[in-house]
Backbone:
């Protein structure tokens, strides 16, 4: 056993504290150094992760921003094309109208040449665009690209899908107040005939010559123009010196590269394996990918660059951005070497002076900590600035996506959201919601008289009145052109909707001051209600639009609320339109004949051919219901040809040609009469059937002469030369003018039944009939009285000298067999 003596105790007391202190000091400092080394390594790794993550966020934000910008421009292609087409056609229309107004004393042929010469050389859309002019019957007046087509009819031209291109264009223009957008499929120059591309254009009616002026452009060409522009502009989006923005196609071809210098020149045509890998793995939602200059599958971080990629559907583009991870690795290595050198110095100082070394290490730690903190603060500020800039851009894009650029009002998308929100609230609280569709009356006149800039200012002034006139819960949207749609939610009674509409009308009572001029305007209004009329936003807007049209056609400036009877009428009309398309091919159209009686002998000398439609489920449909529809949808010409052909065959079959042969009157629509091949068609049919043309009377109404008097004169004169007889139907009910009788070669006047009904009891009707008979005698024309139903009417007409009588007093319209029995035996 060790014996503790004094010397040993002194030494123990003398050295033990020093040894213990030294041991603990060394131990503590070793622990501190080890702990500090571990913390340094962890800090370096954390720094590495944060820097890489920040760079990834930066390239993702940059790529997403460029991606959103491309999508925004891509979605606006069709709207931009429509706007440009409409502007070009309005300019061409103004040129043509100016030439016409300055040369009204010249022949139409001369003015036509002046107009076509003025419009033919005009080019736009980078030289691809041109103007074309067609008559409303399909005859080409001007074709800026293919002048050899001028003078030909394109009425029957079809695309590969079987659609009648020109017919549909003209129908849309007629339906939409003389101007309309349209789309069609057509071959591109230099492309195979079997391959067609979609075009969008705009056509506008030129009233003086019944033309329409139009233009169009391929959507693909406009998109290609946009692509070229985007390839130049998108690459200039902001990026740091350690990142690069690029665009490639889905085959791996490089379309644009934002930085081709130094180590950032990762994407080159020689590195095709990498670009093909990017093209094959990119997705629409976006994803990160490790990229390498040598091989696309390497996992060596020191040679790997990190990219963020997004695929743009429809264009087969991949847009992306990347940064060089090796730069980050070099930066971390430098920091790591600095930390190791510092730790070695700390160890030497701890051995020599542990306390000083410890204090020094604390100071150095504080300095290092402060440096790192400042560095992280700078990184955080830069990230916050980028995030704020991105948020501001998103807010601006979001606002633009939901608001009209001209007026600042909600656009169609935001309106739909507000209506859907209002419907949910109304359903929850058992309330009502009103959708009010308004359209400015005669807005085109404002543009024509004051210019389109004045029209735009008027729209903005109206929008400002709307904004300040209604509650925050109410929404007003510019729906397009001069149309606005209101959504009034949280209504407890329909009377509140009436008060809102009355407030709208009051906003138009004061004149608008535009460019120093007073402009007075009003609006027509259509309204629908939830839940009475519909439960969906689209349905409510559609039904408000339907009754708006009714307001404009019946009385401008009025208000109409939707009702189900109107919907039933429209559904019945649509049903007839659909069924009428197959009526001829299904042999449902047939002809009846109403006798015309000689007033002196009271014998049948002529008949009027009347078209009838017998449907297996709908029954017999009145001509007043289907003739107007046939004119609207372009079926009146084939139906008219069928009735003409059938009537000629039938009458010849029961009454051969000869001095006592029965004559036949056939109604001719304005569309038939104005068609280019009408005269030749009538001539060819009569020649093939063999009926004498002098037996055929073509009945036309006065409305055909209102806008086409010159052309009508030429057609009727030629028909007279070919021995057809011409009758003016319903004389006295329209815009009757004696100048028509003096100018046009009529053989017959038909007195409308509305004058015959009261002829025996109304002296004014009797006097009017006498006047018509006197006019016909003066012009040596035959008169036919329609709607004779009573004997006293017949006796009076006989006494007044009327030539032919037609009406139920003698017979209703007859089948051919019934008519044949009425004729005398020969």
Residues:
């Amino acid at each position: 056993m060790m014996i503790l003596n004094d010397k040993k105790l002194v030494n123990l007391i003398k050295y033990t504290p020093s040894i213990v202190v030294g041991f603990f000091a060394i131990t503590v400092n070793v622990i501190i150094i080890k702990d500090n080394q571990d913390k340094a390594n962890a800090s370096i790794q954390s720094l590495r992760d944060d820097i890489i993550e920040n760079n990834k966020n930066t390239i993702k934000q940059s790529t997403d921003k460029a991606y959103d910008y491309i999508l925004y421009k891509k979605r606006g292609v069709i709207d931009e094309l429509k706007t440009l087409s409409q502007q070009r056609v309005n300019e061409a229309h103004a040129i043509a109208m100016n030439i016409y107004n300055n040369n009204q004393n010249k022949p139409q042929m001369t003015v036509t040449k002046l107009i076509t010469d003025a419009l033919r050389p005009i080019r736009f859309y980078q030289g691809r665009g041109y103007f074309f002019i067609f008559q409303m019957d399909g005859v080409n007046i001007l074709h800026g690209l293919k002048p050899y087509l001028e003078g030909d009819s394109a009425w029957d031209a079809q695309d590969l899908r079987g659609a009648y291109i020109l017919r549909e264009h003209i129908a849309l223009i007629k339906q939409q107040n003389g101007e309309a957008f349209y789309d069609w499929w057509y071959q591109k120059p230099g492309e195979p005939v079997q391959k067609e591309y979609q075009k969008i254009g705009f056509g506008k009616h030129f009233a003086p010559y019944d033309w329409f002026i139009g233009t169009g452009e391929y959507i693909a060409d406009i998109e290609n123009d946009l692509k070229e522009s985007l390839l130049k502009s998108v690459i200039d989006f902001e990026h740091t010196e350690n990142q690069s923005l690029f665009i490639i196609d889905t085959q791996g071809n490089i379309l644009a590269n934002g930085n081709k210098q130094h180590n950032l020149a990762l994407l080159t045509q020689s590195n095709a394996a990498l670009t093909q890998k990017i093209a094959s793995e990119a997705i629409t939602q976006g994803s990160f990918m490790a990229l390498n200059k040598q091989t696309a599958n390497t996992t060596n971080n020191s040679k790997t660059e990190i990219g963020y990629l997004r695929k743009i559907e429809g264009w087969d583009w991949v847009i992306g951005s990347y940064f060089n991870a090796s730069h980050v690795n070099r930066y971390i290595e430098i920091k790591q070497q600095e930390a190791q050198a510092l730790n070695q110095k700390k160890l030497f100082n701890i051995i020599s002076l542990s306390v000083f070394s410890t204090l020094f290490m604390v100071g150095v730690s504080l300095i290092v900590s402060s440096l790192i903190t400042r560095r992280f603060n700078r990184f955080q500020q830069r990230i916050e600035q980028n995030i704020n800039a991105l948020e501001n851009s998103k807010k601006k894009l979001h606002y633009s996506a939901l608001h009209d650029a001209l007026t600042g009002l909600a656009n169609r998308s935001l309106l739909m959201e507000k209506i859907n929100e209002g419907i949910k609230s109304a359903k929850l609280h058992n309330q009502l919601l009103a959708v009010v569709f308004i359209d400015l009356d005669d807005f085109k006149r404002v543009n024509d008289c004051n210019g389109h800039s004045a029209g735009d200012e008027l729209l903005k002034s109206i929008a400002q009145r709307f904004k300040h006139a209604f509650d925050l819960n109410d929404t007003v949207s510019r729906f397009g052109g001069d149309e606005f749609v209101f959504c009034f939610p949280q209504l407890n009674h329909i009377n509140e909707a009436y008060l809102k509409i009355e407030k709208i009308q009051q906003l138009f009572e004061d004149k608008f001051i535009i460019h120093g001029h007073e402009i007075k305007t009003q609006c027509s209004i259509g309204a629908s209600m939830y839940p009475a009329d519909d439960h969906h936003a689209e349905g409510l807007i559609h039904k408000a639009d339907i009754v708006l049209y009714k307001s404009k056609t019946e009385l401008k400036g009025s208000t109409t609320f939707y009702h189900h009877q109107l919907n039933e009428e429209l559904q019945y009309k649509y049903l007839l339109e659909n069924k009428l398309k197959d009526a001829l091919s299904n042999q449902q159209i047939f002809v009846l004949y109403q006798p015309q009686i000689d007033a002196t002998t009271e014998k049948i000398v002529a008949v009027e051919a009347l078209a009838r439609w017998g449907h297996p489920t709908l029954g017999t449909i009145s001509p007043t219901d289907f003739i107007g529809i046939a004119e609207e949808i372009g079926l009146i010409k084939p139906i008219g040809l069928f009735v003409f052909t059938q009537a000629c065959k039938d009458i010849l079959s029961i009454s051969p040609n000869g001095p006592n042969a029965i004559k036949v009157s056939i109604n001719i629509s304005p569309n038939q009469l104005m068609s280019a091949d009408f005269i030749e068609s009538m001539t060819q049919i009569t020649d093939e059937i063999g009926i004498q043309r002098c037996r055929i009377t073509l009945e036309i109404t006065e409305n055909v002469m209102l806008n086409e008097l010159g052309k009508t004169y030429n057609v009727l004169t030629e028909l007279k030369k070919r021995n057809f007889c011409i009758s003016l139907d319903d004389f006295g009910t329209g815009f009757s003018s004696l100048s028509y009788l003096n100018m046009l070669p009529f053989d017959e006047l038909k007195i409308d039944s509305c004058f015959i009904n009261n002829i025996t009891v109304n002296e004014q009707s009797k006097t009017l009939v006498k006047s018509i008979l006197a006019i016909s005698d003066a012009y040596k024309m035959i008169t036919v009285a329609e709607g004779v139903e009573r004997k006293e009417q017949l006796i009076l007409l006989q006494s007044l000298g009327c030539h032919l009588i037609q009406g139920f007093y003698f017979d209703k319209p007859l089948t051919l067999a019934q008519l044949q029995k009425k004729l005398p035996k020969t």
Q: What stands out?
A: Residues 116 and 689 are 42 Å apart (CA to CA). The first strand starts at residue 132 and ends at 135. The chain has a mean pLDDT of 82. The two ends are 167 Å apart (CA to CA).
